[in-house]
Amino acid sequence: MKAVEPIRDPKQINTMKKYLRGKNIRDYALFVVGINVALRISDLLELKWGDVLDGKNFRVIILKEGKTHKIRNIKLNRTSKKALEELLETLDTYCMEDYIFKSREGNNEPITRQQAFYILRDAAKAVGIKEKVGTHTLRKTWGYHAWKAGYNPALIMETLNHNSLGVTKRYLGIRQDDINDLYDGLNI
After folding, report:
1. 3-state secondary structure of 72
2. Which of 47, 59, 98, 145 is the most buried (most CB within 10 A)?
3. How does pLDDT run across 76-102, given as a tens digit for each residue?
4. Helix, strand, or coil (residue 48)
5. What span, in angstroms and rounded, lies between the C-alpha atoms of 142 and 48?
6. Which residues have CB under 8 Å from 82's CB, separation 6+?
7. Phi (first) and psi of residue 108, to 5 degrees
């Protein structure tokens, strides 16, 4: 598996959002929720409406991660809720057992990891993102922007369920320009 990068530039993120919203609202919601909840793609694709909704209201997602088997409590932020509301508005009907990111193939199956990869890769290419993009880009983008926003790397590590700060550091995709920004910004 080739290493993928986070999407570092907020303008590129917004361009991806705009492109995906115009192409397919489900794919837009996948991207938006993916970069806002930091789940692995396998866990993200398994989400059902009943995992995020309590009646008509959004609730905290409680799930057992597939890879680590650890329990995660995820509070959806405003951006994720808005994307999911937009997706709901396009559905003729839905039930709590329906997958959120439902495939058009079969009866109530989520899209595959491979399909999610193609969606993200093709959208990134269409909007001119040069870095390698894949499904893990969603999670890495969350980590990178949490770090850039000044959140403690230990908190980011805990949220991503990493066993070491070294793993989290690789996720953040820190480059020389980030180090230069640190030198420029810290004037003691």
Report:
1. strand
2. 47
3. 999 999 999 999 999 999 999 999 999
4. strand
5. 21
6. 32
7. 55, 60
Exactly one of 67, 69, 70, 78 is catalytic; name it: 67
Q: Which residue from 157, 174, 123 is spatially nearest to 13, judged by alpha carbons?
A: 123
Residue 40 bears catalytic tag? yes
Judged by DSSP in three states, 165 sits in: helix
For 112, other C-beta atoms within 10 Å of its C-beta total 13
The pTM of the full predicted model, rounded to 2 decimals, is 0.91
Indicate if the pLDDT at residue 17 is higher than 60. Answer: yes
DSSP class of residue 38 equals -
162 catalytic? Reply is: yes
* C-alpha span between 65 and 53 (Å, rounded): 19
For residue 131, the tally of other CB atoms under 10 A from its CB is 14
Distance (Å, rounded) from C-alpha 174 to C-alpha 188? Answer: 22
Residue in 17, 139, 140, 145 annotated catalytic: 139
Q: How far apart are CA 33 and CA 31, in angstroms?
A: 6
